[in-house]
Design the sequence.
């Protein structure tokens, strides 16, 4: 168990808090503030407990130089509104400079400051000096609350822990609790639903989950690599040639381990990767050579719904089809609906599945929606996340 902000005395201290404010933006405006809102409990706790709060985050990939379109200024404005108080923001191209140092020193208890995009500095993503030390000079306690970047060993996500007492915020505490409990002591049956396009990314996760779950449900583009491994033709469907052997090996391993591995039995196929392309449902062994699988079919939906209804713990990562296109969103929507209807503990592993749950209006029906796509995948894979490992143990 890692120490949290509750385990340290923050009153009067300059507390450096790494948040994940990497929010989607369009024309200088924040289009979804879920990540900012998720960070509020820790920030409010620190304000109430009289800390001098210095917030940090990255935004996009400025590649080590200042990029005005990736400035955190809109985040500072949004935070001002959400907290109902001033948020000091100095847009320094170097993130830390004399003015920033002075402002940090001048902060009073309960006041909040936000630094500029941490990735304006090239050292950030390499956890290199002098940058990590410059950041460290600003604070006395490090709080990591950025689950979305906890799988990265950067200056502001892990490097700071070498300089000062370091604890987690509530968001990371929550993520570790839900994801960790699901993996360590799941209520059974425990079902993992894996979808999305990149089989290579998901295979290590399936390998780790195989040791823990009762059933693995496969959907999305990666199904076709499994179909190929089973000897079926997949037409023009997305296919990861390099992972065919791995998929075959996984099927054998799950069988040996007595884990049920469910693959789609039918697919909604189209002539082109286009929402308006005419579509038709085919059994998995009958996909025509000139068509591509875009979604799971109706028989698969019924099959999966039945398994989901009986589950007590469900982890979902990756859409069942090309859900961004309305004509191929049925499968993903049906899974989201089945999770919303179920009494099980439902954990959504960030990224596209979190977006899908939100898009279809089931956000409030889930037990936990992870704020980190990549980080939650690595967590489910059983990897140590540097941004969490660096924090003090209780
Ligand atoms: P990933 O990043 O691996 O989780 O993949 C997510 C993406 O997979 C989404 O953008 C989906 O549109 C895409 N996807 C899901 N099913 C399919 C499919 N059958 N063919 C192509 N792409 C798919």
Sequence:
């Amino acid at each position: 168990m890692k120490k949290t902000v509750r385990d340290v005395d923050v009153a009067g201290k300059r507390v450096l808090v790494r948040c994940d404010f990497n929010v989607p933006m369009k024309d200088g405006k924040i289009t979804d503030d879920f990540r900012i809102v998720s960070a509020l409990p820790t920030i409010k706790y620190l304000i109430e407990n009289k800390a001098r709060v210095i917030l940090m985050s990255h935004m996009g990939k400025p590649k080590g130089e200042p990029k005005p379109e990736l400035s955190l200024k809109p985040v500072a404005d949004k935070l001002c509104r959400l907290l109902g108080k001033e948020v000091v923001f100095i847009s320094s191209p170097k993130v830390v400079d004399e003015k920033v140092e002075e402002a940090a020193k001048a902060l009073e208890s309960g006041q909040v400051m936000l630094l500029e995009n941490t990735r304006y500095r090239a050292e950030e993503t390499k956890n290199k000096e002098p940058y990590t030390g410059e950041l460290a000079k600003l604070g006395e306690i490090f709080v990591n609350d950025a689950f979305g970047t906890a799988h990265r060993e950067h200056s502001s996500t892990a490097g700071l822990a070498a300089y000062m007492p370091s604890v987690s915020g509530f968001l990371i505490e929550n993520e570790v609790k839900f994801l960790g409990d699901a993996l360590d002591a799941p209520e059974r049956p425990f079902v993992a639903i894996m979808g999305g396009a990149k089989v290579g990314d998901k295979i290590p996760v399936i390998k780790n989950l195989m040791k823990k779950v009762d059933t693995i449900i496969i959907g999305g583009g990666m199904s076709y690599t499994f179909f190929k491994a089973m000897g079926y033709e997949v037409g023009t469907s997305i296919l990861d040639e390099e992972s065919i052997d791995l998929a075959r090996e996984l099927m054998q391993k799950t069988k040996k381990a007595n884990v049920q591995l469910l693959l789609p039995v039918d697919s909604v196929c189209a002539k082109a990767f286009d929402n308006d392309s005419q579509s038709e449902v085919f059994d998995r062994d009958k996909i025509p050579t000139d068509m591509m699988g875009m979604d799971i079919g109706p028989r698969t939906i019924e099959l999966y719904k039945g398994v989901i209804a009986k589950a007590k713990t469900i982890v979902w990562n990756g859409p069942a089809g090309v859900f961004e296109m309305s004509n191929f969103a049925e499968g993903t929507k049906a899974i989201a609906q089945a999770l919303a209807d179920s009494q099980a503990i439902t954990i959504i592993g960030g990224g596209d599945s979190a977006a899908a749950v939100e898009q279809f209006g089931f956000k409030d029906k889930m037990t936990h929606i992870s704020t980190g796509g990549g980080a939650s995948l690595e967590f489910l894979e059983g990897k140590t996340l540097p941004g969490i490992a660096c924090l003090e143990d209780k």
Remarks:
- The mean pLDDT is 96.
- Residues 23 and 34 are 8 Å apart (CA to CA).
